């Protein structure tokens, strides 16, 4: 029998809670749902008001993975959706996760959460800038840390403050709160800094995705600032063998990570102690008072 639970007055059917999703650690679906429930206070501000795209992995990372922007079949009528016009479908809508009940409902689907840099009530007007630092082997997250420190200092010269998180995969994400700005302008500025980084650190940085150029360097992916693109939400689990988390980190951790990056891997059970110690390191990202204006 599928257990029914009540969350904030909403009745939810939670299925297959004993199913192992992350085989390396034996992490079950029930543990995943519990993780999101206890992490809700931290993750919800980064989801709230933004149309969500889901990477679903209901049979684990070795099963079928599929990315969807449309509300999944069976989405309850109490889960908020918002219009997100697309060129191929001007009437398209996407889920918006604004509350605990919606978060637990989505967690039961076994998903990664991905969001754009803008809110549903102001499409294609970004309030965040993002860089995805992606290392090409034999480069690792240690090289990403080196590039992140350079970018932080460069952004600071323009009056912008960067916050870092692990991608939950191989690299780092830098997120910068900005005053609402058309996505194309944010994209152009981000690209200019990626190009500048390649000029300043030619042996380390790439601003182009070309695979042939990647070995030993860090691709500074600026493309996720385009209005149609999304980035893994802070605190989302990733579809990996182990339950890796896209976890906010301190700049001290980033600076120390330049040695070997060994301490910059966080899994599901690491997050509660980090939240107790640091609080939400990304709290200021969604604070309009922290936003800087692009030059």
Structure description:
The chain is α+β, with helices and mostly antiparallel strands and 295 residues long. It has helices at 29-38, 40-47, 100-107, 141-157, 183-200, 251-257, 271-278; strands at residues 4-7, 10-13, 20-22, 27-28, 53-56, 66-68, 81-83, 93-95, 111-115, 125-135, 163-166, 172-182, 205-206, 218-221, 231-232, 248-249. The strands form 5 sheets. A 6-stranded mixed sheet has the order 13-14-10-12-11-16. A 4-stranded antiparallel sheet has the order 6-5-9-15, with no helix packed on it. It has a two-stranded antiparallel ribbon with strand order 1-2. Strand 11 (163-166) and strand 12 form a beta hairpin. Helix 1 runs antiparallel to helix 3 (100-107) and helix 4 crosses helix 6. The chain is globular and about 55 Å long. The mean pLDDT is 95. Keywords: Ligase. Its EC number is 6.5.1.1. This is Non-homologous end-joining DNA ligase. Residues 28-282 form the DNA ligase D polymerase domain.
Beta-strand residue fraction: 15-25%
Tally of contiguous helical segments: 7
Radius of gyration: 19 Å
Shape: globular
Query: How many strands?
Result: 16
With strands numbered from the N-terminus, the spatial order across the biggest sheet is 13-14-10-12-11-16
Low-confidence stretches: none
Strand count, sense and barrel status of the largest sheet are: 6 strands, mixed
The helix/strand class is alpha+beta
> For the residues shown, what is the average pLDDT?
95
| Gap from first CA to last CA | 58 Å
């Amino acid at each position: 029998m599928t257990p029914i639970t009540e969350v904030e007055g909403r009745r939810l059917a939670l299925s297959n809670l004993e199913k192992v999703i992350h085989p390396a650690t034996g992490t079950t679906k029930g543990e995943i749902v519990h993780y999101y429930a206890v992490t809700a206070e931290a993750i919800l501000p980064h989801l709230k008001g933004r149309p969500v795209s889901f990477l679903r992995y209901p049979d684990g990372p070795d099963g079928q993975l599929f990315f969807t922007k449309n509300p999944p079949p069976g989405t309850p009528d109490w889960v908020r959706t918002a219009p997100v016009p697309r060129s191929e479908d001007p009437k398209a809508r996407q889920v918006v996760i604004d509350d605990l009940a919606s978060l637990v409902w989505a967690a039961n689907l076994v998903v990664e959460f991905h969001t754009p840099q803008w809110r549903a009530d102001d499409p294609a007007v970004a309030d965040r800038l993002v860089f995805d630092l992606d290392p090409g082997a034999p480069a690792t997250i240690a090289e990403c840390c080196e590039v992140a420190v350079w970018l932080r200092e460069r952004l600071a010269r323009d009056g912008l403050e960067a916050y870092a998180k692990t991608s939950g995969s191989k690299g780092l994400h830098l997120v910068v709160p900005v005053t609402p700005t058309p996505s194309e302008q944010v994209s152009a500025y981000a690209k200019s800094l990626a190009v500048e980084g390649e000029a300043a650190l030619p042996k380390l940085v790439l601003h182009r995705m070309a695979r042939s150029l990647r070995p030993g360097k860090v691709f500074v992916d600026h493309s996720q600032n385009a209005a149609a693109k999304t980035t893994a939400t802070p605190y989302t689990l990733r579809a990996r063998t182990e339950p890796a988390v896209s976890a906010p980190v301190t700049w001290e951790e980033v600076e120390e990570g330049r040695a070997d990056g060994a301490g910059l891997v966080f899994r599901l059970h690491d997050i509660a102690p980090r939240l107790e110690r640091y609080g939400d390191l990304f709290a200021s990202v969604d604070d309009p008072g922290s936003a800087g204006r692009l030059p």
